Amino acid sequence: MALMARGDLPIQTVVETEDNPARTGLIHALCAYTIWGFMPLFFKQLVEISALEVVAHRIVWSVPLLLVILWQRKRLGEFFGVMRDSKTLRLMLISSALIATNWLIYIWAIYQNQILAASLGYYLNPLLNVVLGYFFLSERLKPVQWLAVAMAAAGVAVLAIETLATIWISLALAASFGLYGMVRKVAPVKSVPGLTAETTLLFPIAAAFAGWAFLYDASPGLGYSLRTDIYLILGGAITATPLLFFASAAKRLSLATLGFVQYIGPTIQFLLGVFLYNEPLTVSHMICFGLIWAALVLYSGDALVSARKSSTAKA
């Protein structure tokens, strides 16, 4: 997600004359990834509602909130610029389809007690980004990065032998979010205006489906109870809040630091799946996660060393 927010502005409530921007950035990064990590707790409260309807409401309630945020930060012009640029708009159509697919699979996985599979997908995402950069953006891979990718692939292969019926969840989440990040990297759009454009493009379909569900679907949904209504409306805030924290963190922290902090999210999900929701942790799971964690240590350690060398050279 660092690819989407590079160069974005800080949260408005942050005092820009702060004495220690790195400390503020780290706090905001921790807030963002902690919220993302605990999201299964939120969506578990909506299991009686279809994942498709939850995604629809997440989009519907995100749009007004994001527009208000842009208006308050005097950045509506960026949003309108995106909507007027045909080339950028085509990229936003692709990214909006990818992020909606990612949200839908993620919520469905939570409903199906597959939080471990979801966390694995987000562990895989940084390594998949390396592969996508190699094939689509002509980025070169170092031997350490190739080794990390090979270790992750071996872990997935081990798990696939035992859980072929669910491994697709991890791969689909990693692929949809990895491709989303790649599209957002090449699109000349910052994080909040970009998300506003994406949800605005999705809004007509989402609003139509939410309206149909409200009028004709007999299953629980909007209007079923005050508790349900609050959770559905809060879906907009759950979408926007961690992104705003992340936008602030990305401006203040190096990508290497963000690379380490990003593993907080899937780690929290992993712990929730095992210890709170009692999802089975098999030997294949342990081998798979062990290989991927080792791969991420190699990958992140190499990124940190490269960042230090670059900083030393600049000094």
UniProtKB/TrEMBL annotation:
Q: Which Pfam families match?
A: EamA
| UniProt entry keywords in alphabetical sequence | Cell membrane, Membrane, Transmembrane, Transmembrane helix, Transport
Keyword hit for Membrane: yes
Subcellular location(s) of the protein:
Cell membrane
Q: Which residues form the EamA domain?
A: 24-159
Q: Can you tell me which family this protein belongs to?
A: Belongs to the EamA transporter family.
Name of the protein this chain belongs to:
EamA family transporter RarD
Highest lineage ranks of the organism? Bacteria, Pseudomonadati, Pseudomonadota, Alphaproteobacteria, Sphingomonadales
